[in-house]
């Protein structure tokens, strides 16, 4: 049977009724297995933007941000709650887990804050989640964070663009071409580069876009599974 490439994802068949695998053809004409995905610390879903054909549950603790996510991905299940606790309580319900714990306490900017009298501990939730997923989660997983100001306590699986990724599957190279500094650029530049049009009046739009993973990179990673 041959499948024509299409813009919208088509679910073609139930391959194995006992195991309930659903196989579909994505926009790049790849044969994919439909997964139940948990998207932790969802933000505006930069990492998730190009995932198609999967069942996604997004967890975000900021209701305003979640409301933006809801408008961008109306088909996803969304929950406004603590992602760290949700992971512990619900990991068994998913095939693939992506986690993007908050980066401010790990980022290189932390060192310059010292000059302003701001000192803080790096948030160990990042490493708690990596260790937890590695030892207790049976599916595929990836944890994303910024390249920190210190030597990472656990060696990342891959370093791509501005991020370290820890995962239980290999992640190949991916080049992100951009000719601007993400931390200094405008909302408009980020909108164009990410291809994410935020709803009119979105609060802190520039910051939300700056925090987002470049969508083709999120797609590249899910395609490695
Ligand atoms: C780095 S951003 C996520 C970016 C996202 N992966 C993307 O590509 O667009 C981290 C998000 O986690 C949210 N957050 C912080 N602490 C949280 C918590 N305990 N539970 C759920 N969400 C949280 C923040 O509001 C922020 O939107």
Q: How is the topology of this model organized?
A:
Elements: E1 10-16, E2 21-25, E3 31-33, E4 36-40, E5 55-59, H1 63-72, E6 77-79, H2 83-90, E7 96-99, H3 109-113, H4 125-136, E8 140-146, E9 158-160, E10 163-167, H5 187-194, H6 205-211, H7 215-222
Parallel strand pairs: 4-5, 4-7, 5-6, 7-8
Antiparallel strand pairs: 1-2, 2-3, 8-10, 9-10
Bound molecules: S-adenosylmethionine.
Largest β sheet strand count, sense and barrel closure: 7 strands, mixed
Shape: globular
> How confident overall, as mean pLDDT?
90
Q: Kindly state the number of beta strands.
A: 10
Report how far the terminal alpha carbons are from each other. Answer: 24 Å
Structural class: alpha/beta
Features of the shown structure:
binds S-adenosylmethionine; alpha/beta; seven-stranded mixed beta sheet; three-stranded antiparallel beta sheet; 225 residues; Rossmann fold; 21% strand; 10 strands
At a glance:
The protein has helices at residues 63-72, 83-90, 109-113, 125-136, 187-194, 205-211, 215-222, and strands spanning 10-16, 21-25, 31-33, 36-40, 55-59, 77-79, 96-99, 140-146, 158-160, 163-167.
Structural overview:
By secondary structure, this protein is of the alpha/beta class. It has one domain (35-222): Rossmann fold (3-Layer(aba) Sandwich). It contains seven helices and ten strands. The strands form two sheets. A seven-stranded mixed beta sheet has the order 6-5-4-7-8-10-9, with helices on both faces. A three-stranded antiparallel beta sheet has the order 1-2-3, with no helix packed on it. Helix 5 packs across helix 6 (205-211). The longest helix has 12 residues, at 125-136. The two termini are 24 Å apart. Residues 1-7 and 12-19 have low confidence and may be disordered. S-adenosylmethionine is lined by residues 41, 43-47, 59-62, 65, 82-84, 100, 102-103, 211-213.
């Amino acid at each position: 049977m041959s499948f024509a490439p299409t813009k919208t994802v088509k679910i073609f068949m139930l391959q194995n009724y006992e195991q309930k695998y659903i196989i579909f053809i994505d926009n790049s004409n790849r044969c994919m297995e439909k997964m139940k995905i948990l998207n932790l610390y969802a933000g505006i879903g930069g990492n998730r933007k190009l995932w198609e054909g999967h069942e996604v549950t997004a967890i975000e603790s900021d209701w305003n941000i979640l409301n933006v996510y809801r408008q961008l991905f109306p088909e996803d299940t969304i929950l406004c709650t603590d992602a760290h606790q949700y992971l512990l309580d619900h990991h068994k319900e998913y095939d693939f887990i992506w986690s993007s714990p908050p980066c401010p306490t790990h980022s290189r900017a932390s060192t310059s804050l010292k000059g302003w009298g701001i000192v803080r501990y790096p948030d160990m939730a990042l490493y708690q989640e990596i260790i937890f997923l590695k030892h207790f989660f049976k599916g595929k997983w990836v944890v994303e964070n910024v390249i920190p100001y210190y030597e990472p306590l656990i060696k990342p699986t891959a370093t791509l663009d501005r991020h370290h990724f820890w995962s239980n599957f290999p992640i190949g190279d991916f080049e992100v071409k951009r000719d601007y500094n993400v931390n200094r650029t405008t909302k408009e530049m980020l909108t164009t580069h990410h291809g994410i049009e935020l709803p009119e009046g979105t609060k802190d739009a520039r910051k939300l876009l700056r925090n987002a993973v470049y969508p083709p990179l999120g797609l590249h990673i899910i395609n490695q599974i």
